[in-house]
C-alpha cells in the first residue's frame, strides 16, 4: 500500500472473497449490501438555510449515540445520485455512532427528501453549500468543532471546501475523503470508456431521474436539456454547467476539480483512493505533487474499487476503520 504524508500505522487492506476485483468491490454494496438499521438511535431532521438568497434549505438527519455524546460532530457527505440513505453513508453512520460520535447525514442540495424543495441543485463544486451547513448548525453541536467525511463526489466537494478560505473551514478539526474524483474531466473521460458502459448508463439514468422527478423546480429548457443528454458530459455541458454559472462542462471541470485546491488545505485530512477504482482514474493522484499539501495524508491501496474496501480483517469497510483511526488522532 502506498502512503503519502506523516507515518501512521494504518492497517493493510486485503480484499475479502469473493470481491476480488475493483469492479466487484465497487458493486458489492448493490449486490450484497443489507439495509443498515439506525432506528435505535435518537434522531431528528435538521434544515440549514443557504446563503445565495434562493430560499433553499439543505436537509440532514442528526443521529445521537447512546449515552452522553462527548465526541465532536461527524458530518457525512454522499456521492453522485446518493442521499442520506445511501448504503455506504448509513454503514459509516452506524460504525461511528457505535463508537460514540454524533453523526449528521447531509443531503446535498436537491438530493433525497430535498429534491422537490430546492431551486438550485448540487454539483461537484458545491463547497459553499457545505460552508452554509457548518455556519448554520446549532451552536451546541459545533462547540467542540466538527469532523467531515465525504464519499466520491461528496469527497471532491469536501476537498474543495477545505482548500478555500472562509470561517466555516476553521471549525473542521479533521477530515476524510474517500474515492474523490479530484480531476473531474479525467473522471468523465474514464467513465465514457467502452469498458465502463454499464456504469455510464446507470449513472446517467440516475442523474436524469433525480433531475426530472415530478415537482422538481426546473423550467422547460432545463428539462429538455436533461432529457436530451446522451452522455454524462452532455448532461454537465447542457444542464449542470449553465445552471451554476460555468461556460461549459470543461470550464466546470477545471474550476471545480479538487486537485486545484489541495495546497490550500490546513485541516488534517486523510485521502483514501484505490488504484483499481474503475470510475475514478488513479493517474491524477499519481501526478499530484503532494508535498504542496502538507496537511494531507494519503492511503493508496492497490485494491478496493470505488467506495468499496471490503476486506478480510473485518466486515466493517476498511475505509471506515482507517477514518476512525485518523479522526481519533484529532
What is the H-and-E element order?
EHEEEHEHHEHEHHHHHEHEH
What's the pLDDT, averaged over the residues?
94
Provide the CATH top-level class of the largest domain: Alpha Beta
Rg, nearest Å: 19 Å
Output the CATH homologous superfamily of the largest domain. Answer: Alpha/Beta hydrolase fold, catalytic domain
What features would you describe in this structure?
The chain has twelve helices and nine strands. By secondary structure, the chain is α/β, with parallel strands linked by helices. It folds into two domains: 2-183 and 257-329, Alpha/Beta hydrolase fold, catalytic domain (Rossmann fold); 192-255, no CATH class. Strand 2 and strand 3 (57-64) form a beta hairpin. The longest helix has 15 residues, at 197-211. The radius of gyration is 19 Å and the shape is globular. The two termini are 23 Å apart. The model has no long low-confidence stretch (mean pLDDT 94).
What does the secondary structure layout of this molecule look like, with pairings?
Blueprint: E1 2-4, H1 22-32, E2 42-49, E3 57-64, E4 73-77, H2 87-98, E5 103-107, H3 127-135, H4 139-142, E6 146-151, H5 153-163, E7 172-178, H6 184-191, H7 197-211, H8 220-228, H9 232-243, H10 249-256, E8 269-272, H11 283-287, E9 296-300, H12 318-329
Helix pairs in contact: 3-5, 9-10
Defining traits:
single chain; 330 residues; alpha/beta; Rossmann fold; 2 domains; nine-stranded mixed beta sheet; globular
Amino acid at each position: 500500500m502506498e502512503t503519502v504524508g506523516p507515518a501512521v500505522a494504518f492497517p493493510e487492506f486485503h480484499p475479502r472473497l469473493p470481491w476480488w476485483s475493483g469492479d466487484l468491490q465497487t458493486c458489492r454494496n448493490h449486490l450484497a449490501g443489507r439495509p443498515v438499521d439506525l432506528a435505535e438511535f435518537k434522531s431528528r431532521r435538521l434544515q440549514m438555510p443557504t446563503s445565495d438568497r434562493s430560499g433553499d434549505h439543505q436537509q440532514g438527519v442528526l443521529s445521537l449515540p447512546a449515552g452522553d455524546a462527548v465526541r465532536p460532530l461527524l458530518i457525512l457527505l454522499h456521492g453522485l445520485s446518493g442521499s442520506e440513505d445511501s448504503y455506504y453513508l448509513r454503514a459509516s453512520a452506524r460504525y461511528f455512532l457505535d463508537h460514540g460520535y454524533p453523526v449528521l447525514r447531509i443531503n446535498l442540495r436537491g438530493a433525497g427528501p430535498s429534491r422537490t424543495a430546492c431551486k438550485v441543485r448540487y454539483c461537484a463544486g458545491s463547497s459553499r453549500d457545505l460552508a452554509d451547513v457548518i455556519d448554520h448548525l446549532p451552536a451546541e453541536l459545533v462547540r467542540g468543532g466538527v469532523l467531515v467525511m465525504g464519499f466520491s463526489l461528496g469527497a471532491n466537494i469536501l476537498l474543495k471546501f477545505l482548500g478555500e478560505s472562509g470561517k466555516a473551514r476553521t471549525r473542521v478539526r479533521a477530515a476524510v475523503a474517500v474515492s474523490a474524483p479530484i480531476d473531474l474531466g479525467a473522471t468523465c473521460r474514464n467513465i465514457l470508456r467502452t469498458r465502463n458502459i454499464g456504469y455510464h448508463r446507470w449513472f446517467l439514468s440516475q442523474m436524469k431521474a433525480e433531475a426530472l422527478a415530478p415537482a422538481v423546480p426546473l423550467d422547460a429548457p432545463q428539462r429538455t436539456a436533461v432529457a436530451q443528454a446522451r452522455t454524462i458530459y452532455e448532461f454537465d455541458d447542457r444542464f449542470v454547467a449553465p445552471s451554476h454559472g460555468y461556460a461549459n462542462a470543461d470550464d466546470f471541470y477545471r474550476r471545480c476539480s479538487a486537485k486545484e485546491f489541495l495546497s490550500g488545505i490546513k485541516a488534517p485530512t486523510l485521502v483514501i483512493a484505490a488504484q483499481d477504482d474503475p470510475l475514478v482514474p488513479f493517474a491524477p493522484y499519481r501526478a499530484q505533487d503532494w508535498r504542496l499539501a502538507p496537511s494531507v495524508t494519503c492511503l493508496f491501496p492497490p485494491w478496493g474499487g470505488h467506495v468499496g474496501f471490503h476486506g478480510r480483517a473485518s466486515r466493517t469497510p476498511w475505509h471506515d476503520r482507517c477514518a476512525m483511526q485518523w479522526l481519533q488522532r484529532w
